Amino acid sequence: MTDTATMAGLDPATLADVLRLAGSQGFDRIQDQIRRTGGCTDPIRLTGTTITRDAATGHVLHSYSTATEPGGVLRLACGNRRASRCPACAWTYAGDTYHLIRAGLVGDPAKGTPETIRDHPRVFATLTAPSFGPVHNRPGNRPCRCGTHHQDDAPDLGTPLDPESYDYAGAVLWNNHACDLWRYFTIYLRREIAKLAGLTQKAAREQSRVSFGKVAEYQKRGTIHFHAVIRFDGPEGPDSPPPAWATLDLLTDAIRAAAARVAVDVPPAWYQPDPEQPARTEPARTLRWGEQIDVRPIRAFGDGAEITEQAVASYVAKYATKAAETTGTVDRRIGNKEALALLDVPDHPARLITACLDLHPLYPDRKLRDWAHMLGFRGHFSTKSRSYSTTLGALRQVRADYRAAQQRAALGLPDPDDEEATTLTLAHWVYAGHGHTPGESWLAANIRRDIQHNREIAREELPALLADERDC
Hints:
single chain, 2 domains, 5-stranded antiparallel β-sheet, 4-stranded antiparallel β-sheet
């Protein structure tokens, strides 16, 4: 329990609930449950029972019921990937994403990728949006177009020099179609590879594969761009070497050529809800990638290169837990324009959200109103091709199996893989809500802070421990 000095600034309702929890008989168990979730901000509450029997004799080996828990519920981590919603679960998600991306770079037989993929050509590519109008930026050592040398944290960065002439409609429509642009890019990439290799598309597919793992990131101006690890594999995927013609230079040239070919047409739209009012119209548009396409080779970890396997995996994992809230918007749906003032959304993201709400009647199938808080973007933030590496589901299952094995060992239950010991588990669970009471929220925040502090200490001491181990 945190000392009482940190409780001085609590509001009366939270303080009263903290004192109630501290005086309750189940306080230690509540702490234990919250700690097991990592200090989750919005845990899932379940009620139910589980019974483990010997399948042969019917003898009850173990039984559990939430009726014995404080409040009659069991708390489970919410699993939200957004750091703005739940820092604890976002940390776990970032860790899983890191291992998923890294496994596709250095190889990990336990995760389904051989270590030989380190010899495969692979690049770190960044695809961005085009310009929708000049914005405040930091162009090297030169001043911004406004004549100011902006600091790194200047609030003006990414905002338009002239908001009235900025193409807000084009920006949100581009975000909304960004996943279509990526899909066409992956199609054209394979075609360009075959073309540059002097092969038919069928022959190129029979001799090689292209694997990728990508993450979406919001630029300061509110538009999406994609970071992707793109790798050449052999005909059998990561387990086979790529052909001699599948070089790093060919992959780089194919990426640039494919990005230049991509075009998504948005038809003109017309909407007039009131015959007495002028109709709202939008012209036809052709959406393309921006001119700033960055393709860098990924070098083996530790060889002194700027773009290393470790750096790429860490970079991708960092942005896997972030979304549009980094631009100043909110992380939940906005129903109308009036809510923008109540939520204190800055002017630039507010204009982007307003553009989504205004464009929704013209393009109802694009669901711009539903994704206005995401500035129009409606895709997954991290995706990968099937053969790139393992999956997030597989990583979560490994973690769940490990914890289950620990619990079985603590309870003295047999291993379910033991053919001689067969057990039958009957479980019944019911959703009972989510979230914390005010006092539990305060307790979870302190537990989460302590866990983070311990991780930082362990990270700082790890190099010294490894050095001592080498000296022994």
